[in-house]
Amino acid sequence: MNEPSSKTDALTLLSSRASATKLADPAPPAELLDRVLAAALRAPDHGALRAFRVLVIEGAARKGFGELMAASAKRGNPALDEAGLEATRKKAERAPMILVVVCPPKAHPKVPEIEQVITAGCLAHTILLGLQAEGFGAMWRTGPAAYDPGVKEGLGLRAEDHIVGFVYVGTPAGEPPALPRPSTKDYVTRWSPR
């Protein structure tokens, strides 16, 4: 296990995080995935509501997921031809495993729904980092299907549940593209009262 041995190692992992754009077999074994998910469950969670779920889609189940995605694409664009539908179906096969990160919001007098969605987003981000630390790759996707009631129903979710992301998981096949990284000077401001 590649645990960060110092604060410097943790910061290196954080600053080198990148989406793996091409993923191949194998997916992480069940024991390692369980450890990564257990770490992700430590995401900040106001009120300890645990308003998150992770659905694991792998093997033949990816075909069914591809059909859900194609049906969603057809609802969004009734003119989509068979070639377009097939391309959409194939997206479910671009990785050996897909993790659907979900926020099933809970009514709470002190914890607004947005905070619960953010918690699920933190969980997804920690999954990405944990997989990278263990030598696997992942990419986080959404798109119209994440907001489609038909996809939610097909996945056994409620209409009010939020699909925070489809996290495609596998072994990186090639280097991630070199992308410009933002600078703190462009996004961080030191505030002081006037």
Number of strands: 5
CATH class type of the domain at 19-58 and 94-174: Alpha Beta
What does the average pLDDT come to?
93
Strand content: 15-25%
- Helix-strand category: alpha+beta
> Low-confidence stretches at least 5 residues in length (pLDDT < 50)?
none
Query: What is the tally of helical segments?
Result: 7
End-to-end gap: 50 Å
Helix content range of the residues, please?
A: 25-40%
CATH architecture name of the domain at 19-58 and 94-174: 3-Layer(aba) Sandwich
> Main β-sheet: number of strands, strand sense, barrel status?
5 strands, antiparallel
Any idea what the radius of gyration is? 18 Å
Structure in a nutshell:
The chain has helices at 7-16, 30-40, 61-76, 82-90, 113-133, 149-154, 184-187; strands spanning 23-24, 53-58, 97-103, 137-141, 162-172. With 194 residues, it is an alpha+beta fold. The protein has a domain at 19-58 and 94-174: NADH Oxidase.
Structure, explained:
The protein has helices spanning 7-16, 30-40, 61-76, 82-90, 113-133, 149-154, 184-187; strands at residues 23-24, 53-58, 97-103, 137-141, 162-172. It has 194 residues and is an alpha+beta fold. The termini are far apart.
Name the descriptors:
globular, single chain, 5 strands, 194 residues, alpha+beta, NADH Oxidase, 5-stranded antiparallel sheet
